[in-house]
């Protein structure tokens, strides 16, 4: 209708006349503007309705699709957020792990530093204590570095005597290390010097000065120092002499030594023991003199300033001898001996130990220092062409029936002047050391009635001065009789009875032309008797009973005219003694010998041995 009105109005204007044309034109413009504005407004409203799915009718069918797209966008955004959070968490964990590792490393480093400082302080304090102990032992006999009170010290006679400020000796070894290494350059302290010398001269083994005798925890006890360590420590820490006494040989009375006003009971009893037990001593007066001098040393070395008894300027042979004597004491449980007077007593010469006999002999004048400088050229004890000095050296040790236990140490080799070693009827166990074969002056080796094991060392055949060898009544010794024993052409007595020897009698026994007594009874020997035995023209006693010998006695035994005793029973031998042996009987009218005792298996029916002249028949 509007458009129609508009048309008639325009028609009328065109056809009208004159003054209304401008007004009409203006109205038309305003109308068109209004119409155009309404049209654009309607268009905008329609567009907005189309854009809003809740107001636009045409788009409501796409609501579901729109929601789905919106959810997908939100899900993608959530996924991105989750991934970002995971990445951030991973980075944070890595940083935390690195921080924890750094903290742990710092803690471990701090602990290591603390341990190092603690160990360093411990070693420093330990070294200072050892140095204080060394200084105190060199300035006062047994005075403690801490200045403690009275203690008891074992002076070697089985009795403890109370002394002023004296440490208990021989309990631990301040020089013990798990890995003892020969020091280079040469050692400067006495302990290392002794250790170096005895190892380089094959007196002691490295392991004996390195390891403990008992592993920790065995037998429920603590680890104990070896006899070699104890001997070394005795010489270094406890073996001192009063400054007023330069040598015990100079001890003659009150002019040289200030004696104690109240000597201990141990001193008097030890003096009496030395005088009473003088086996092998040259004379009773000499024994009493040694006891008097030893008593003077014991009674004074606790009251005066002291100095080390042995020094690096002491002859090396003398140092080694005292060391070996101390090792023998500790290795055979010296504190349990029935008699041990003055053994390992500080300042008392080893020649004054009970049961020890000495002679003043020339020895190489090589000091301990000089011996360490040239260990490979150390002269032997009997080597000529070297400077000598006179020293009292051990020539005999006699300690029979003395409750000695433990073992016989190889350090006996450090007594090269030893001529007699009598240790029979004790409880010494272990093997007989082969080093005994180096004691070239040894004439008597009496080790029977002990608890030795192993075998007879063939090195004994090197003892060409040997006259008396007794190892019988050691059931633990097994094996064959070494043929090297036949080299002992000066041997007069050989006792190997009641052992567990097997095999046969070596034919080399026929070379022992001076042999007078041969006892091989109660063994497991077999085979026939060697004809070489008939060469023993000086043989007086032959005991072969309780073995497994076979064969017979031949007419060649006629040459054994000095034979006085023959025991051949309890064997598997078959022979006629009437024709082969009875002519040696002193009761025979045709006697050509000295046979007084003849025992054979002449009993039974028929007897294995036919003997009408036997003094006793067995079987």
TrEMBL record:
Biased composition (Polar residues): 49-59
Biased composition (Low complexity): 1-10, 36-48, 129-144, 161-174, 259-269
Keywords carried by this UniProt record: Leucine-rich repeat, Membrane, Repeat, Signal, Transmembrane, Transmembrane helix
Source domain of life: Eukaryota
Domain Disease resistance R13L4/SHOC-2-like LRR: 414-570
Cross-referenced Gene3D superfamilies: Ribonuclease Inhibitor (3.80.10.10)
Transmembrane segments: 103-125
Region (Disordered): 1-84, 129-176, 249-269
Residue spans of biased composition, Basic residues class: 61-70
One Pfam short name: LRR_14
InterPro entries xref list: Leu-rich_rpt_typical-subtyp, LRR_dom_sf, LRR_R13L4/SHOC2-like
Name of the protein in its database record: Disease resistance R13L4/SHOC-2-like LRR domain-containing protein
């Amino acid at each position: 209708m509007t458009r129609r009105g508009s048309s008639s109005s325009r028609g009328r204007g065109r056809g009208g006349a004159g003054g209304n044309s401008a007004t009409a034109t203006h109205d038309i413009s305003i109308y068109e503007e209004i119409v155009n504005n309404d049209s654009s407004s309607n268009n905008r409203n329609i567009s907005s309705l189309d854009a809003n799915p809740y107001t636009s009718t045409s788009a409501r069918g796409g609501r579901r699709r729109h929601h789905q797209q919106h959810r997908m966008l939100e899900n993608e955004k959530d996924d991105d957020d989750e991934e970002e959070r995971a990445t951030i968490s991973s980075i944070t964990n890595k940083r935390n792990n690195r921080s924890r590792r750094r903290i742990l490393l710092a803690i471990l480093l701090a602990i290591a530093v603390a341990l190092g400082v603690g160990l360093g302080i411990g070693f420093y304090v330990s070294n200072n204590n050892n140095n204080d102990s060394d200084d105190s032992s060199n300035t006062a006999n047994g005075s403690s570095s801490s200045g403690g009170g009275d203690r008891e010290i074992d002076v070697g006679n089985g009795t403890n005597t109370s002394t002023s400020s004296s440490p208990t000796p021989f309990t631990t070894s301040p020089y013990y290390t798990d890995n003892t290494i020969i020091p280079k350059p040469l050692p400067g302290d006495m302990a290392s010097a002794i250790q170096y010398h005895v190892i380089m001269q094959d007196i002691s083994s490295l392991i004996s000065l390195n390891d403990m005798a008992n592993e920790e925890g065995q037998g429920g006890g603590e680890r104990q120092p070896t006899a070699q360590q104890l001997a070394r420590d005795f010489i270094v820490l406890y073996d001192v002499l009063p400054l007023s006494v330069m040598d015990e040989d100079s001890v003659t009375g009150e002019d040289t030594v200030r004696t104690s006003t109240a000597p201990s009971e141990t001193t008097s009893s030890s003096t009496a023991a030395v005088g009473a037990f003088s086996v092998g001593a040259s004379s009773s007066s000499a024994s009493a003199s040694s006891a008097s001098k030893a008593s003077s040393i014991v009674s004074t070395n606790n009251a005066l300033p002291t100095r080390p008894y042995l020094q690096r300027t002491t002859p090396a042979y003398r140092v080694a001898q005292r060391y070996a004597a101390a090792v023998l004491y500790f290795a055979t449980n010296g504190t349990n001996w029935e008699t041990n007077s003055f053994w390992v007593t500080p300042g008392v010469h080893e020649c004054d130990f009970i049961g020890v006999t000495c002679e003043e002999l020339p020895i190489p004048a090589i000091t301990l220092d000089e011996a360490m400088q040239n260990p490979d050229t150390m002269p032997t004890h009997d080597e000529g062409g070297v400077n000598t000095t006179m020293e009292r050296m051990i020539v005999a040790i006699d300690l029979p029936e003395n409750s000695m236990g433990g073992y016989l140490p190889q350090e006996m080799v450090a007594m090269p002047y030893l001529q007699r070693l009598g240790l029979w009827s004790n409880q010494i166990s272990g093997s007989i050391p082969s080093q005994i074969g180096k004691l070239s002056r040894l004439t008597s080796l009496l080790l029977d009635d002990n608890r030795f094991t192993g075998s007879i060392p063939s090195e004994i055949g090197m003892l060409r001065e040997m006259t008396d060898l007794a190892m019988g009544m050691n059931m633990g010794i097994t094996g064959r009789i070494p043929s090297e024993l036949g080299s002992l052409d000066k041997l007069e007595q050989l006792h190997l009875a009641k052992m567990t020897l097997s095999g046969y009698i070596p034919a080399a026994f026929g070379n022992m032309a001076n042999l007078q007594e041969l006892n091989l009874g109660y063994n497991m020997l077999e085979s026939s008797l060697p004809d070489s035995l008939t060469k023993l023209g000086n043989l007086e006693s032959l005991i072969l009973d309780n073995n497994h010998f076979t064969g017979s006695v031949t007419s060649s035994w006629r040459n054994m005219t000095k034979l006085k005793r023959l025991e051949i029973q309890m064997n598997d031998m078959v022979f006629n003694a009437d024709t082969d042996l009875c002519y040696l009987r002193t009761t025979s009218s045709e006697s050509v010998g000295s046979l007084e005792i003849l025992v054979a298996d002449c009993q039974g029916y028929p007897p294995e041995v036919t003997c009408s002249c036997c003094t006793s028949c067995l079987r």
